[in-house]
Amino acid sequence: EARIKDMHTRLMITQAQEDQWSKVAQVMRDNAKQMDALAKTRAERAAMSAVQDLKSYGEISEAHADGIKKVTPVFSTLYDSMSAKQKKAADGVFRNGSRKMT
Length: 102
Hints:
Oligomer: single chain
Mean pLDDT: 91
Distance between the termini: 12 Å
Largest sheet: none
Low-confidence stretches: none
Number of helices: 4
Structural class: mainly alpha
Strand content: under 5%
Radius of gyration: 16 Å
């Protein structure tokens, strides 16, 4: 939630963009919930073999990639509605490593 609030501020989301932003935020929440569940499962498997560890890491990597695929279209719609100033801010947010939308 803190990341969502921070991005809302940094992207200067307007009242007119709130509906689009809420869709982005919901996908971010859903993605985070899935990643948290996978991380919890991984942490509970303290005695994994090397093969199990690789499989677990692969599941997390796949979920991350799937999350990016889910957030991209909803963020793209929001981005298309942004002013030049907002787009510049968004480009900076993503360029500087704050891409954690999944």
